[in-house]
Design brief:
This protein has 556 residues and is an alpha/beta fold. The chain is built from 20 helices and 24 strands. The chain has 3 domains: 4-128 and 251-429, Rossmann fold; 130-247, Domain 2, N(10)-formyltetrahydrofolate synthetase (2-Layer Sandwich); 444-526, Roll (Formyltetrahydrofolate synthetase, domain 3).
Length: 556
C-alpha cells in the first residue's frame, strides 16, 4: 500500500468553495488560502447562532504506545462513514505542531485512506495560526521586559515573573536561559526560558474563547508576574491585550479543509494534551455544531488526558454536551499494554491482548463517570488475527460495551459504516447525561486528588509544599473554582511511562502549579513532564525533504 503522503498527494481535492457548500457556507463567507483551504468569517458564523446544535461525538483512545492507535485516523474515518450513510457531518481536529512534526511523531492529519488534506499544508505552516499565536505571546514577552526596563508601574519583582517565551519547535537548549545580558541598554538581567507554542496560555485562551471580544478579555486577565508585595500583575496592566488580539484577529476564524472523501473538516487550534488541555478550538466546534447534524471531534492522547480535559475543561467552560464517545484501540497497542515488546507484536498473543484490555477497560469505566455512553472502535490491521479480535470483543461484551472492527485506514468511510450507524443510534437516543467529574466548589487539591484516585486509579496526589502554598494563594485570590489541568506523561495512567496497562498502587507527584487565569484553569505539573520537549535521537526531520519534483517527502 502507498504511504500516507502518497495517498494524500494522489487524492482529488475539490475547491474549498464546493466543500463549504456541503455545510451551506456561501463562497462569500470564505477567506481562501489557495484553492483547498479557507477561513470561515465571523459575520457568517454569528448569523448561525440561532440554529440548533448538532450532536457532539468525542473520539478518544487507550493509552498511547509506540505501536500506534490511530485516533485521528479513526476520527476522520468515522466522519467519512457518517457522511457515507447520509448524515450531515463535520469533523473537528487540532492543528499539528511543528515540534512533534519534525520530532518523533511526524505528520498528524490521519493516515491511509482516512486523512484530511492538503496534508503537507496542514502539517506545516497551514494558515499561519500558530505563527500568530507565537507572535502574540512573544509581543507580550517584549512588552513585559520593556516595562521592567523603564521601571514602570506596576513594578515587577524580577524573581516572580511568570511569563516566558515560546517557539513552535522542540528545542531543549532553550528551556532555561538568561536574558538582559550585555549591559544596561539590553534590559534587566534575569532567568527566563522558552516553552513550545502549543503550551502557551495564549494557545489555551485562543482555543477556549468564543469571540474576538472574549479573546481580548481573556488575554487581559492573564497573570504575567507579581510585584514585590506579591500582588498579581495582569496583561491588562501592561495594556497588551489589544495589540495581541489584533495579531490573532484572522487566526481566530476557523479553518475549513476536507477529507480524502471531500467531506468538510475544521482544523483549528492545537494545545498539547499533556501540558495543556488538548482540544481544538471552541469556535470551530461551535461552528460545526451549528452547521452540521453530527460533529466528530478528538481529544489528544489517551482518555486519561484528552478525554478528561475535554469533559472537565472544554465542555464545562463552553457549555457543550457530548452525546457519545468512541474509544479507539488496536490489537498491537493492547498487546504492548499486556507486556509484549514492540519487536514481537507481529505474532499472535491472545493472552497479552486479554491482559492489555485492562487498560481499555479502565478508560471505558472513566468515560462512564461523565455520563457519556461509549463504544469501542478497533482500528484493525491486516496482521491482526480473528482470535485477537474475538478476545477484545469478548472483554468488551463482559463490560456490556459494543465493539466494532473498523478498516478505515484501508477502506476509508466504507470501513466505519457499522460504527457510524450505531453512533447515530446512541447519539440520537438521548441517553447521555453529561456531568463533570468534580464540582466547581471542590478545593483545588481535592480536584487533583479526585482525578488521581478516581480517574487514574492511583492512591492520590503528593503535592510539594511550595505548590501547596501556591494552591492556597490561588484559592485566596478567588481562583479556587477553576478546573485543573493535569500535566503528566501520556504513556501511563501514572507519571512513570514504563507502567503500562492499568497500574495501581502509585501516587501522582505534583511539583509545581501554574495559574492560567485567562484560559480559566490551574495547571498541575506532574512528574518529569516538560513544557519544552526535546528532539529524539533520530528526529523525523532527518528524513523530511523535497524531491526532484519539489514535493515534500518524509511526512507520514
Amino acid at each position: 500500500m502507498s504511504s500516507d503522503i502518497e495517498i494524500a498527494r494522489a487524492s482529488t481535492m475539490k475547491p474549498i468553495t464546493e466543500v463549504g457548500e456541503r455545510l451551506d457556507i456561501p463562497a462569500s463567507a470564505l477567506q481562501p488560502y489557495g484553492h483547498y483551504k479557507a477561513k470561515v468569517d465571523f459575520e457568517f458564523l454569528g448569523a448561525q447562532q440561532s440554529e440548533s446544535d448538532g450532536k457532539l461525538i468525542l473520539v478518544t483512545a487507550v493509552t498511547p504506545t509506540p505501536a500506534g492507535e490511530g485516533k485521528t485516523t479513526t476520527t476522520v474515518g468515522l466522519g467519512d462513514g457518517l457522511n457515507r450513510i447520509g448524515k450531515r457531518t463535520a469533523i473537528c481536529l487540532r492543528e499539528p505542531s511543528l515540534g512533534p512534526c519534525f520530532g518523533m511523531k511526524g505528520g498528524a492529519a490521519g493516515g491511509g485512506y482516512a486523512q484530511v488534506v492538503p496534508m503537507e499544508d496542514i502539517n506545516l505552516h497551514f494558515t499561519g495560526d500558530f505563527h500568530a499565536i507565537g507572535a502574540a505571546h512573544n509581543l507580550l514577552s517584549a512588552m513585559l521586559d520593556n516595562h521592567m526596563h523603564w521601571n514602570l508601574e506596576p513594578k515587577f519583582d524580577p524573581r516572580r515573573v511568570a511569563w516566558r517565551r515560546v517557539l513552535d519547535m522542540n528545542d531543549r537548549s532553550l528551556r532555561d536561559i538568561a536574558i538582559g545580558l550585555g549591559g544596561i541598554t539590553n534590559g534587566m538581567p534575569r532567568e527566563s526560558g522558552f516553552d513550545i507554542t502549543v503550551a502557551s496560555e495564549v494557545m489555551a485562551v485562543f482555543c477556549l474563547a468564543d469571540s474576538l471580544a472574549d479573546l481580548q478579555e481573556r488575554l487581559g486577565r492573564i497573570v504575567v508576574g507579581y510585584s514585590r508585595a506579591r500582588k498579581p500583575i495582569y496583561v491588562r496592566d501592561l495594556k497588551g491585550e489589544g495589540a495581541m488580539t489584533v495579531l490573532l484577529r484572522d487566526a481566530l476564524m476557523p479553518n475549513l479543509v476536507q477529507t480524502l472523501e471531500n467531506n468538510p473538516a475544521f482544523v483549528h487550534g492545537g494545545p498539547f494534551a499533556n501540558i495543556a488541555h488538548g482540544c481544538n478550538s471552541v469556535v470551530a466546534t461551535r461552528a460545526g455544531l451549528k452547521l452540521a447534524d453530527y460533529v466528530v471531534t478528538e481529544a489528544g492522547f489517551g482518555a486519561d488526558l484528552g478525554a478528561e480535559k475535554f469533559f472537565d475543561i472544554k465542555c464545562r467552560k463552553a457549555g457543550l454536551n457530548p452525546a457519545a464517545a468512541v474509544v479507539v484501540a488496536t490489537a498491537r497497542a493492547l498487546k504492548m499494554h499486556g507486556g509484549v515488546a514492540k519487536n514481537d507484536l507481529a505474532s499472535e498473543n491472545v493472552a497479552a491482548i486479554r491482559k492489555g484490555c485492562e487498560n481499555l477497560g479502565r478508560h471505558l469505566t472513566n468515560i462512564g463517570r461523565f455520563g457519556v455512553p461509549a463504544l469501542v472502535a478497533i482500528n484493525r490491521f491486516t496482521a491482526d488475527t480473528d482470535a485477537e479480535m474475538a478476545a477484545i470483543g469478548g472483554y468488551c461484551k463482559d463490560l456490556d460495551v459494543e465493539v466494532f472492527e473498523c478498516t478505515h485506514w484501508a477502506n476509508g468511510g466504507a470501513g466505519t459504516e457499522a460504527l457510524a450507524e450505531r453512533v447515530v443510534a446512541v447519539a440520537d437516543s438521548g441517553v447521555a447525561d453529561f456531568k463533570p467529574l468534580y464540582p466547581d466548589d471542590m478545593s483545588l487539591f481535592d480536584k487533583m486528588d479526585t482525578i488521581a484516585r478516581d480517574y487514574y486509579g492511583g492512591d492520590g496526589v503528593v503535592v510539594e509544599q511550595k505548590a501547596l502554598n501556591q494552591l492556597k494563594t490561588f484559592e485566596q485570590a478567588g481562583y479556587g473554582h477553576l478546573p485543573v489541568c493535569m500535566a503528566k506523561t501520556q504513556y501511563s495512567f501514572s507519571t512513570d511511562a514504563a507502567k503500562v496497562g492499568a497500574p495501581s498502587g502509585f501516587t501522582i507527584p505534583v511539583r509545581e502549579v501554574r495559574l492560567s487565569a485567562g484560559a480559566g484553569f490551574i495547571v498541575a505539573i506532574c512528574g518529569e513532564i516538560m513544557t519544552m520537549p526535546g528532539l529524539p535521537r533520530q528526529p523525523a526531520a532527518n528524513t523530511i525533504r523535497l524531491n526532484d519534483q519539489l514535493q515534500v517527502e518524509g511526512l507520514f
